[in-house]
Design goal:
Blueprint lengths: L18 H6 L9 H16 L19 H9 L8 H5 L2 H12 L62 H14 L7 E5 L33 E3 L9 E6 L2 E5 L14 E5 L6 E9 L13 E4 H7 L4 E2 L2 E12 L2 E11 L7 E4 L6 H13 L1 H4 L2 E8 L5 E7 L6 H5 L2 E7 L7 H13 L4 H9 E6 L4 H6 L24 H16 L2 E10 L5 E4 L13 H9 L20 H9 L4 E7 L15 H19 L4 H13 L29 H11 L1
Parallel strand pairs: 4-6, 14-15, 14-16, 16-18
Antiparallel strand pairs: 1-3, 2-5, 3-4, 5-11, 6-10, 7-8, 7-11, 9-10, 12-13, 13-15, 17-18
Helix pairs in contact: 3-18, 11-17, 12-17, 15-17, 15-18
């Protein structure tokens, strides 16, 4: 890039003295001058010389080889192709280059198209230091350090819940009894995250203990549960004891809003082993939820983790989501209720809507990447901008930095973002799988780094994540509705991401954008794209079709490519229209599980979300392989599935709901069954 001489690794400064640099939000470090390139080459050589280092390998040629068209076409048309060796599937292009290099080094070629990558950078690798404490920006105190959770998954599959017949009627009758016999109801506030306990014996603030326990036990016989949510990403506003073992819970709305209550994450202690505790979250606002399709809450027991190593796992019986008797302006409130039996006495347990992934988790993870000499030469991290609360919004660049500068300029660009909606934590787990793959030692990962420059914004809404919001930023706005004209002062992370993308697109062809999300009303993993009615018809569906073939949890029939007017300010649509990027997607992962294939009837786990990140990388390799036989075969499939006369109806209807990046668009039950019906229809 002409006129860009900033040194490699320089971080963005956003003060007034560097107005031009801040206004673009762009890092030119991937376009290295000769001196920087030489330094990078030396760093890569040192990493390669270290045990296990892989950063010094020579750049692989992308030379197409011979291809057996008939065999490839058969493989592409299978409903679920088994994962043979890469040579058997592709025969030529990048995949053949991988096999040639593996054979030349007398190494075994990759055994699977969908690799299982054990993350070399687990979360919670070290306790965060005091200087790393995030800023809430609200004035409310948060305990520090945050809760420490391992990411160990259960060694057994976790089934989705079967909704108990008649459970909603039983619960409605129970609620009616409470109204009929109010004298039997305790109605005692035992926790409030904002207001102090008026009955507390200890008065005043304690600098050494900024967060005081709300309920003070009267003695060993007091079996009242102790609630807490005043930690990073926690959300529970108030707990009210109704009966000895039943509690109504009120979630805190997103900061500066009166709604968006869905994400919950809090702890309970002083529990009694074997006793059944009933929890009612009574101020939810969505009329439906995947809790009625089998989702169960998550629990993390400190005692169980210490005894067996088990981390987050599913819990709860008598689970239901239904409209309650509480009225609100413009509608009604809904209750999520479930009953939990704790396995240990006097344990501290955490309950959550989905696997937590906090801002501190992200900072620890990125620090572990930078500290690994094998990875440091493949990734660069800098501050894109500061948030409203003063936290860092990180920008990652991943490519082969040690390559020739001319080769760097010819690489195509890909942009990935996540966590614009704070409560959709599965987005961070998918992104972690993506980054682990991309910075890993495999030959496939090196092909990607040799041919692309990846820009990654891992957390677009750090303030919302820190404060336990579900959807909005500190301004009380949904940041994924601000892409048309973002404000530098009110929506800084969106503003600087868009400015960065503009500069990125000036320097190279940007060929893909994906924003990672979670979905609260559908099962499976799927994408929302943008229907390309002009030019290359159906091309926007090729990459999702590849994902469907490469992933066990991705449902092509749940994908939607229509664009509603109410979605025109989302990242997916703005990037498609303003930058002309056909492959502009929102990748959605269910909070629940899958309804097809080998994962049918099972909850999705952290491993499933990370595996989706791996499959995404693998599909990029397939889509951009110089040998286009596989993508050509998929285009032929799509022409059969979606003839020109019915293209307008393909992909399902897009709803105007209020969830996710696209409002939980297009509620349809998919998987392979739905896809088969479409194929037969034509």
């Amino acid at each position: 890039m002409e006129g860009r001489t900033e040194a490699a690794g320089r971080r963005l400064e956003t003060d007034d003295t560097e107005e031009e640099e801040a206004s673009s939000g762009y890092d030119s470090s991937e376009s290295l001058d000769e001196g920087a390139a030489e330094a990078e080459a030396q760093q890569a050589a040192r990493a390669a010389a270290a045990p296990g280092g892989g950063g010094g390998a020579a750049r692989r040629e992308s030379v197409p080889g011979p291809q057996d068209a008939e065999a490839s076409g058969a493989a592409a048309s299978q409903r679920r192709p088994s994962p043979p060796s890469s040579a058997a599937v592709n025969g030529g292009g990048w995949r053949q280059a991988v096999d040639r290099e593996a054979q030349a080094s007398k190494a075994s070629p990759p055994a699977s198209r969908i690799p299982t990558i054990a993350s070399p950078h687990p979360l919670h690798q070290h306790e965060p230091q005091e200087s790393e404490q995030p800023k809430s920006g609200t004035g409310y105190s948060l305990s520090w350090p945050p809760p420490f959770h391992t990411s160990a998954m259960p060694p057994f599959p976790e089934l989705l819940n079967d909704l108990k017949e008649g459970i909603v009627s039983q619960l409605a009758l129970h609620d009616q009894r409470r109204l009929t016999f109010p004298s039997a109801v305790h109605n005692r506030v035992v926790f409030d995250s904002i207001e102090p306990n008026p009955a507390s014996k200890s008065k005043g603030k304690d600098a050494a203990q900024p967060v005081k326990q709300y309920w003070e036990l009267s003695g060993p016989e007091d079996d009242t549960l102790i609630f807490e949510s005043r930690f990073e990403s926690g959300n529970l506003r108030r707990a009210i004891q109704i009966y000895p073992s039943e509690y109504d819970l009120i979630l805190r709305p997103d900061i500066n809003t009166r709604g968006h209550t869905q994400w919950y994450y809090f702890s309970v202690s002083n529990v009694r082993r074997g006793r059944k505790y009933k929890f009612n979250l009574i101020n939810l606002v969505k009329p439906d939820s995947v809790y009625n399709q089998g989702l169960r809450p998550l629990i993390y027991s400190e005692a169980e983790q210490s005894a067996s190593g088990l981390g987050w796992h599913r819990t709860g019986v008598d689970i239901a989501y239904y409209q309650n008797n509480i009225k609100r302006k413009g509608g009604a409130y809904y209750t999520l209720t479930f009953t939990v039996t704790f396995p240990h006495d006097n344990d501290t347990c955490y309950l959550a809507h989905c696997y937590p992934y906090t801002y501190t988790d992200l900072q620890n993870y990125l620090a572990s990447l930078e500290a690994d000499p094998r990875v440091a030469s493949r990734i660069r991290r800098r501050v894109l901008c500061k948030t409203l609360a003063g936290n860092n919004c990180d920008l990652l660049t991943v490519t082969s930095f040690s390559s020739d500068p001319e080769a760097m300029k010819s690489r195509k660009g890909i942009l990935i973002t996540a966590r614009v909606h704070p409560g959709e934590t599965q987005a961070s787990w998918m992104l972690k799988g993506f980054v682990d793959y991309l910075t890993g030692p495999t030959l496939d990962a090196k092909i990607l780094r040799d041919n692309f420059v990846f820009k990654i914004v891992p957390m677009l809404n750090p303030d919302g994540v820190i404060n336990g919001n579900y959807r909005c930023s500190l301004s009380g706005q949904d940041l994924n509705r601000q892409w048309l004209d973002p404000s530098r002062t009110v929506h800084p992370t969106i503003y600087y991401t868009k400015m960065m993308l503009k500069r990125f697109a000036e320097d190279r062809e940007v060929v893909m954008y994906s924003d990672l999300h979670g979905h609260s009303r559908k099962k499976n993993i799927f994408v929302y794209g943008c229907d390309n009615k002009q030019g290359d018809r159906l091309k926007e569906r090729v990459f999702p079709r590849l994902l469907w073939k490469n992933s066990e949890s991705f449902s092509f029939s749940d994908c939607n490519f229509k664009v509603q007017r109410c979605k025109e300010s989302t990242g997916r649509v703005v990037v498609w229209r303003e930058f002309g990027i056909i492959n502009s997607f929102t990748l959605e992962a269910s909070f629940a599980g899958a309804n097809f294939g080998v994962k049918s009837g099972l909850h999705m786990t952290v491993d499933d979300f990370q595996s989706m990140g791996h499959s995404f990388c693998d599909s990029i390799l397939d889509y951009f392989d110089p040998d286009q036989i596989k993508t050509d075969a998929i285009l032929r499939e799509l022409v059969v599935l979606y003839p020109d006369s019915v293209q307008q109806d393909a992909g399902g209807a897009e709803s105007s709901g209020d969830d996710s990046s696209s409002g939980d668009e297009g509620i349809s039950g998919g998987g392979r069954r739905g896809e088969r019906k479409k194929a037969l229809a034509f």
